[in-house]
Amino acid sequence: MAGHSGDPPESANHPSPAANCGPREGEVPIKPFMEYMRRLEEAGISAEDLDDVVHDLKSNEATDLNNAGLEAQVEYIVSCGGEGELERILEEGHVDETEAAPA
Fold first, then answer.
1. Is the pLDDT of residue 1 over 90?
2. Residue whose C-alpha is closest to residue 68's, from 30, 31, 19
């Protein structure tokens, strides 16, 4: 099972948390990071300008994880919130969304 490092599980039969973020088959590999940073700066695009794009991508990731079932959800919770997050859920017997660890 994944630990605190955020590494995807090695033997999972479901999408990893980053499964939807890499190049898809037939796509050209991602350009060097610094080239994108330079071009974004030249175009005047700020972090705030990319907020909605990031939100949509993370929302899609959450949907994929939730659709992958309980095992995927547990591995993700442990990888992001640690075993303590799962222990808290088990001790309380329910999930209080206002106290859940941020994604």
1. no
2. 19
The pLDDT of residue 48 is above 90? yes
Q: What is the number of other CB atoms lying within 10 angstroms of the CB of residue 72?
A: 21
Among 58, 61, 78, 74, smallest CA distance to 3 is for 78
Are 38 and 45 in contact, with CB atoms under 8 Å apart?
A: no
Task: For residue 41, give every residue at least 6 positions away whose Cβ sits within 8 Å of its Cβ, in sequence order, or none.
Answer: none
What are the structure tokens assigned to 22, written together?
């890499």
Please, what's the b/e burial string for 74-103 (b: 16 or more CB within 10 A of its CB; e: otherwise)?
A: ebbbbbbbeeeeeebbeeeeeeeeeeeeee
Give me the mean pLDDT over the 2-12 stretch.
42
CA–CA separation, 35 vs 64, rounded Å? 30
